[in-house]
Amino acid sequence: MKVTGAQALIKSLEREGVEVVFGLPGGAILPAYDPIRDSSIRHILVRHEQGAGHAAEGYAWATGRVGVCMVTSGPGATNLVTALCDAHMDSVPLVAITGQVPSAAIGTDAFQEADTTGITMPVTKHNELVLDPARIPAAIAEAFHIARTGRPGPVLVDVPKDVLQASTEWSWPDAVDLPGYRPTVRPNAKRVREAAALLRAARRPVLYVGGGVIKADAAGPLRELAELAQAPVTTTLMARGAFPDDHPLALGMPGMHGGYAAVAALQEADLLVALGARFDDRVTGKLDAFAPKARIVHADIDPAEIGKNRVPDVPIVGDVRQIAQALVAAYREAVATDGPGDTAGWLRATAQWKQRFPFRYQQQPGGPLKPQLVVERLSHLTGGDAVVVAGVGQHQMYAAQFFRFNRPRSWINSGGLGTMGFAVPAAMGAKVARPEELVVAIDGDGCFQMTAQELATCTVERIPIKVFILNNAHLGMVRQWQELFYDERYSEVELGWNVPDYVKLAEAYGCVGLRCDRAEDVDATIGKALAVESVPAVVDFRVDSHEGVFPMIPAGRANDEIILGPDFSPEEQAAATRREVKGQ
Amino acid sequence: MSRHTISVLVANKPGVLARISGMFSRRGFNIDSLAVGRTDDPEVSRMTIVVDQAASPEQVVKQLNKLIHVLKIVEHEPGSAVERELLLVKVRAEPAIRFQVIELADVYEAKIVDVTQDTLTIQATGSPPKISSLLELLAPYGIKELARTGCIALGRGNRAISERQVRAVRPA
Description:
The complex is a heterodimer of chains A (about 575) and B (about 170). Chain A is an alpha/beta fold and about 575 residues long.
């Protein structure tokens, strides 16, 4: 069958089962926008290409499927770079299609020309400039295969306009042939046995769980392993929801703004079993002071992560779901031969830390609204039954700390790259993927203004997300660092309360706009926002701009130097610093 | 100073050199030398990369392996490979001292490939340390310019790096 390159492209996306493409047309990609009219694929017209990228990410986070975005050459592609980099850092499966100037014009500084494959090489898992229309189906099939297998990531396919216009014979490849790409999926059985033996023998084990557990759909076997080994579990920012916060073994989030119990447990542990985690600096703090007493089992799909930051005692390369399942079986065998493990004393200590040093804030009656209260009430009022999406900064940390995540894929954020402006478009993508569910973007006022234009997309395309702006009139996290580390010399962090008027802005975009600045109105306002149907609801929660995120481990410092914050007494801080366990 | 020599088979695709050199620069690995050429299979090129000691060879190999167009990597243990480099060097050699330079070249089994009134161009091959020592000896005469190809290497013994078995994967 004769088709154009553009038809081959759209047919290929259909063959890959693509339901939705987030995109914005332009000159070079124009030919592809003709056949998409006749396609079963839903195209969602964003207002900025970055929004297309983050929306595709939100879709991928929410489903585990590959998110797809499509933009034109030059500025279209460069506007996508932030989202690609974000997806690369957070291992989000993405396929980005970019138009390119006609092949004869490549390299001539033609109108809207950019070296897209060159620019995106360091921020994609792979990319390709397709110069032969007959190659389009194979390029797309390979892109999806690479994006979703192994360690997932973004793949970009750049197609010149003349290649889209040229005629070719339609042929779908029946196999992907990539001799240089063979991810190791099945774990080494000997390594698994070694790891299980260490876990059984450990008296103070911690399962250090990262985003890989969610990507590998390993929450089930993880829970089995934790319960079997009676090992407490810490879920990183990328892994919130991988293990239920309500579970007695849950320690919550570790790291720079993690909970005390999680941080202390890592520092005191005699064994860390890292599952789909990468010893990121935000978790380890000063690397050579991280978990100093622990032996390390490191399980990851990406061999390059193993030994990158911390040399493990037992490395396991493979799919984390398979690894967790294998560990469960091997642990049972280890118990059968060597007797049961004993973590009872350890669990008493971690439970005590959790109870004595929780995330804490004080909402004064009549005082300024605390941002933590908004998140806590949202969590309570929804029973945790929501998909929460965050941008980057204080609001992100409050969301990660105070929302109780009990299901995988109920938390979406920009972890590695820390992309302000992620939340609104990512929430849009998540809502498209899971239209029956409540999707709430918890956003900051700084973040919100970076990508708020996608509210127009949400209204027009009937994607009724909720956006809760924790508006502190500042770039709050930067303000907090200036307060703590620059002697309160505030420099360029004030955004102001009144510009823009978020309620009017929401209304201008066809959304419902609400405002709340008193603690006693929070429940009613959340109720009103959740009751809005068919259009997005935006709430301007005016919160205390002096509030900081705690606990905090200053950047580059040891986890041992955790600061509990102003809501704890000096005596409590001292007890925390010496990791006191009462009754032992 | 110890260096690591790595042989890499790569798909002979546009941009593959940029992918590899870009990975080295963004990961902060310093390349001491890099030599590329086609193999007997026109779709496969072979790169010989020498990295300095600072880079963890394990991380270098693992990061290289993540590139889709990298087919096979071998890190040569010290002494386990034949390592050779080609040097062209133009040395100041007025008639009075020309024979000294020629003798020196002879010791190194190097060839004189161009002669002028006051210069000699010498072609030498050998292990990188041998080339470096020749250059040290030539330096006092005055080196006008030089070009080195960078090291290429083949493992000793009868084993070869072969491209991995081509095994197609069915798309999901």
